[in-house]
Design brief:
By secondary structure, this protein is of the alpha+beta class. The protein has 2 domains: about 10-95 and about 265-290, 2-Layer Sandwich (Phosphorylase Kinase, domain 1), CATH 3.30.200; about 95-230, 2-Layer Sandwich (D-amino Acid Aminotransferase, Chain A, domain 1). The protein has 7 helices and 16 strands.
Length: about 290
C-alpha cells in the first residue's frame, strides 16, 4: 500500500491493524516448504480472498470475522486505493486468536497417511487396518495441530490440545470444525470436488468463538476432482502441487532462497486455483476481479 506499511507481513497476507478491526490483504505471493518464492502467481490473492468471503457468507450458522470486502466500506486511506485492493482485501473484526490449527480429515492423505502407515493412527486416533492412501474415512476426524509462527506445525492429540487451550474450548472447536467440514463437503461433492481435508482457525470476540483467517481455499484445503479420484495413490490437488513438484524435480534442498518459477508452472498453478473457484462458486464470476 502506497505510504502505509503493514503491521504484519505473512507468507501470503499483509495485515493492517486498525484498532478494533484489521484489514487483510491477500497478495499473489506463494510459499512452499516454509519459504516464500520470488515468483508470484497472478490473481492468486484475489481468488483466495473472494473464495473465503463467499464461504463466510455461505456459512450462516457459524459466526465469522468478516465485515466487508467492499473497498468503499474501508476507513481512510484504504478506501482511496480500490485499484489495488478490490477483490484481494477484507475488513474484519479483530479477535483473540486461539492458537490451534483445527484440521478436519475426511480422507487419509499427506502427513496423516504417513503417520497411519507407521502407527495405525492419526493424532492419537486409532483407525481401522487396511486403509489405502487417499482412502475415505468412515467419519471425518478432528486432528488439531500447533500454530507455529515459523517452521512446521505439529500434529497433536485432542488431549494435548486441551492442555493448551482448555478442554471446553477444544470440544467447541471440534464441534464447529466438523460442522463446517461436513456441510462444505456435501456442497462441494455436488460441484464435483472432494474436500479431502481442511484447516480452520478460530478466535474469540465478545466471549464468542468465531471463524477467522481464511476458509476452504486451495491454500488451506486439499481439493480433489471427483472424476479423477482413485484410492490407493496420491491424488492431483487443486492447489500449488505443480509448484511443489517443480521444486522437488529441481532438487532444491528447501533452504532459502527459493528458486524462481518458470512461466508454465505459474500458469498451470493459477489455472488450478481458478478451476477450484469456478467449480465451487460459478456465480462468483471470478474473472471480473482478475
Amino acid at each position: 500500500m502506497p505510504g502505509v506499511e503493514p503491521n504484519y507481513r505473512g507468507k501470503v497476507r499483509d495485515i493492517y491493524d486498525l484498532g478494533d478491526m484489521l484489514l487483510i490483504v491477500a497478495t499473489d505471493r506463494i510459499s512452499a516448504y516454509d519459504s516464500v518464492l520470488p515468483t508470484p502467481i497472478p490473481g492468486k490473492g484475489i481468488m483466495l480472498n473472494m473464495l473465503s468471503a463467499h464461504w463466510f457468507e455461505w456459512f450462516d450458522t457459524v459466526p465469522n470475522h468478516m465485515i466487508s470486502v467492499d473497498v468503499e466500506d474501508f476507513p481512510e486511506p484504504f478506501n482511496r486505493h480500490a485499484g489495488i485492493l478490490t477483490g484481494r482485501s477484507m475488513l474484519v473484526k479483530k479477535a483473540g486468536r486461539i492458537d490451534l490449527e483445527c484440521i478436519v480429515r475426511g480422507y487419509i492423505s499427506g502427513s496423516g497417511w504417513r503417520e497411519y502407515k507407521e502407527h495405525g493412527s492419526v493424532c492419537g486416533i486409532s483407525l481401522p487396518r487396511g486403509l489405502k492412501n487417499s482412502g475415505r474415512l468412515e467419519e471425518p476426524i478432528f486432528t488439531p495441530s500447533t500454530k507455529a509462527e515459523s517452521g512446521h506445525d505439529e500434529n497433536i492429540s485432542a488431549a494435548k490440545a486441551a492442555r493448551l487451550v482448555g478442554e471446553e474450548t477444544v470440544r467447541e472447536l471440534e464441534s464447529l470444525s466438523l460442522e463446517l467440514y461436513t456441510r462444505a463437503s456435501e456442497y462441494a461433492a455436488g460441484r464435483g470436488i472432494i474436500i479431502a481435508d481442511t484447516k480452520f482457525e478460530f478466535g474469540v470476540t465478545e466471549d464468542q468463538i468465531i471463524l477467522i483467517d481464511e476458509a476452504l481455499t486451495p491454500d488451506s484445503s486439499r481439493f480433489w476432482l471427483a472424476d479423477e479420484y482413485e484410492p490407493g495413490r496420491q491424488q492431483r490437488s487443486l492447489d500449488k502441487q505443480f509448484v511443489r513438484d517443480f521444486l522437488d524435480e529441481k532438487g532444491w534442498d528447501h533452504s532459502p532462497p527459493a528458486p524462481a518459477l518458470p512461466r508454465d508452472i505459474v500458469e498451470k498453478t493459477a489455472g488450478r486455483y481458478r478451476l477450484a473457484v469456478e467449480m465451487l462458486f460459478p456465480e462468483l464470476d471470478i474473472e471480473r476481479y482478475l
